[in-house]
Amino acid sequence: MSLTSIVGKAFLPRQIKLQRHITDAETLQATVLRHLLQRAANTEYGRNHLFNNTRSYDDFARNVPVNTYEELKSDIDRMRHGESDVLWPGQVKWYAKSSGTTNDKSKFIPVSQEGLQHIHYQGGKDVVALYLRNNPHSRLFDGRSLILGGSHSPNYNLPGSLVGDLSAILIENINPLANLVRVPKKQTALLSDFEVKRDRIARETLGKNVTNISGVPSWMMSVLVRVLELSGKEHIEEVWPNLEVFFHGGIAFTPYRSQYEKLITSPKMHYMETYNASEGFFGIQNDPSDKSMLLMLDYDVFYEFMPVDQVGMPNPTVVPLTGVELNKNYAMLISTSCGLWRYMIGDTVMFTSRDPYKFVITGRTKYFINAFGEELIQDNAENGLLEACRETGAEVKEYTAAPVFMDQNAKCRHQWVIEFAKLPDSIEHFADVLDKSLQQINSDYEAKRFHDITLQHLEVVVARQGLFDDWLKSKGKLGGQHKVPRLSNNRTVIDEVLEMNK
Q1: CB–CB of 374/455 below 8 Å?
Q2: Which of 356, 359, 357, 361 is nearest to 346 (CA)?
Q3: 240: number of CA atoms within 13 Å, CB side?
Q4: What sign has the CA pseudo-torsion 377, 382, 387, 391?
Q5: Residue 427 CB coordination number (10 Å)
Q6: Using one digit for the tens of pLDDT, what is the confidence trace for 293-350?
Q7: Which residues pair with 487 in a beta bridge?
Q8: Which of 43, 177, 47 minimizes the C-alpha distance to 110?
Q9: Phi/psi at 160 (nearest 5 deg)?
């Protein structure tokens, strides 16, 4: 009998309980909101916003404003300096340094003990529970887990509080027993220099029986390439014959899938998407045949949704889970046991099902192009690139895109800088397929492209190899959970990238 078949029995009660996501979704969320309000009623924020007198969702929405990081920043700064009972009961020790911005200004997201256990770690456990339910013959626990994470940020530490990438916080606080089944060793996992870390991880894992890997697709790809370089093998299953699943998140997997399928050719390999961020753990792909993720409703997270076209408006419409419509783009708001209240996380989602509630991530509230009324979002970009790669045989490694507002010929267009893992048959063909695909996917883009009147044919600039890594390195963001902004409504990022491409 395998160890997995024994350990797997411990997940059976949770697998049964997860069925309530189908039958009792609204009840689960109402219970979460009631719990959060009761726990935080005697905090400074709870007193100021009448948590004790809040009896319904309507009361909550009336008493508590929608927040971004800027609105909560002063309270979080006080918490980092040791103050208790500000946004959440007691003193919060850990803060996740968010990579959600492209400038040097950092966000420090509080991670309370309750949030750590009831959101982040619970999400990790449920990933395993759902994976084992779908794969009853798994040997997941018969080998090691390769978990690729970030690092601590000691320069930001204050007396009484510590800062790090979320993944580093999870590694630092994990049950010591988990270290018996994970690689690399803790000291290596927490290294800040990704180039050094990448090499050490590869060397430490070469002789291990790795059955599962977890991390951001772009950085994990870099590690796997180094493993193959050191081993002299062509495919990863020659190094780790029992590898069976990649738990991935952080960025869309679509541009990387074909590259992974070339590195890992084993027919038993599985891929499972998760939606976890510094602010919480929100979704898990529970059906391998459906790219949508199940919204996790019984953690310490209460969800609300704002139509994307109302972001930034004075009195936007905000609805709880019961008010969402299918196939509509929403900005997501969360209230959590880490002290975030009606907090706009910055991600946009679209629901594909209400029974159960399932969704796809469509992008970021800041990462879109709408310079000419085209409303191009990241999900459009990913699907357009997928079709262009399929048609031309290309493989995209990294990319960013932004508008060219008006060149010397008074022409406006979108400019894409793309680093290819494999070049297309011709750049012109690739650009043409991408442009036509975006028109098929997005009617607003199609309308603006009509007869080249408002928007001309897009431009593709080929990036040199390693360009985006160099850009991230210049920002001190190489490795961990950091990622390249895919779409920008201004030219700040793309101009910096182009300057480094000379």
Answers
A1: yes
A2: 361
A3: 28
A4: positive
A5: 17
A6: 999 999 999 999 999 989 888 899 999 999 999 999 999 999 999 999 999 998 999 9
A7: 401
A8: 43
A9: 95, -5
**How many Cα atoms are found within 13 Å in the side-chain-facing hemisphere of 22?**
6
Element (H, E) at 199: helix 194-205
Between vectors from CA 85 to CA 83 and to CA 89, what angle results, nearest 5°? 130
The secondary structure element, H or E, covering residue 44 is: helix 44-48
Pairing of strands 343-354, 329-336: antiparallel
Q: What does the alpha-carbon distance between residue 116 and residue 103 come to, in Å, rounded to a whole number?
A: 27
The pLDDT tens digits of the residues spanning 226-250 come to 999 999 999 999 999 999 999 999 8
- The predicted pLDDT at position 440 comes to 94
C-alpha of 458 from chain center: 27
Do 177 and 249 form a contact (C-beta atoms < 8 A)?
A: no
State how far the Cα of 58 lies from the Cα of 174, in Å rounded to an integer. Answer: 38
With CA atoms as reference, report the closest residue to 280 among 364, 203, 358, 337.
337
DSSP state of 116: I
- As a dihedral over the C-alpha atoms of residue 259, residue 101, residue 298, residue 309, rounded to 10 degrees, the angle is -100
Q: SS in 3 state form for 158-188?
A: ECCEEEECHHHHHHHHCCHHHHHCEECCHHH
Picking from 490, 478, 493, the residue whose alpha carbon sits closest to that of residue 417 is 493
- Report residues of the chain scoring pLDDT below 70: 99-105, 406-410, 480-481
In 94-164, alpha helices (H): 113-115, 122-134
The DSSP code sequence of 364-385 is: ESSSEE-SSS--EEHHHHHHHH
* 428, HSE (Cβ side, Cα atoms, 13 Å): 0
Q: What SS3 state is found at 328?
A: coil
